[in-house]
Amino acid sequence: MFERFTKDARSVVDGAVGHAEESRAGQVRPEHLLLALFDPAGGRAAFALSALGLPERREEVRWTLAEARRRAGLTQVEATALAGLGIDVSEVVARVEEVHGVGAMSGGRGAGGWRPGRRLSFSRGAKSVLERSLREALARHDRHIGDDHLLLALTVLPGVAAEALAEHGVTYEAVVRVLYGGGAKAG
């Protein structure tokens, strides 16, 4: 599948690996793909993100992703649902961090986590983003998978990355409108 990726899309995937290594994550996750979308200067995804005002809020997005990582990757919606069951995720995180240190629930450093020199694998969520990007390209009759297809996949698949994007007005419909001028629905 990677042979179908454009130079910009490959740059995003390589950047995601770099972000995962930098954060000492055990795997490349969708959040790393999102962070890597901020890196390239000239791709279609960068154009869409810029048109939607996201580069100015990059640090807010990073903070949102870091907070989700502290909650063991739970979205805010999931944390709210647990609160409805009487489980205060903030309290659970505080207690775990009190005993094991800040970031103990982030999954980056323990058994099966980050190790220097170890080749990182892609999480199920990151693989889903890559697969969905292929579907996005095929649906648009594009011969190659671009960084714009990765962005579309991140907006439509449930999870922390989509939640962080939506929180800042970057939805599937908004990206489609900017890139293609239409309001096509996810397929």
From TrEMBL:
Alphabetic keyword roster: Repeat
Keyword presence, Amino-acid biosynthesis: no
Organism: Streptomyces pluripotens
Gene3D superfamilies (alphabetical): Clp, N-terminal domain
A Pfam family this chain is assigned to: Clp_N
Protein name: Peptidase
InterPro entries recorded: Clp_N_dom_sf, Clp_R_N
Domain Clp R: 2-187
Domain of life: Bacteria
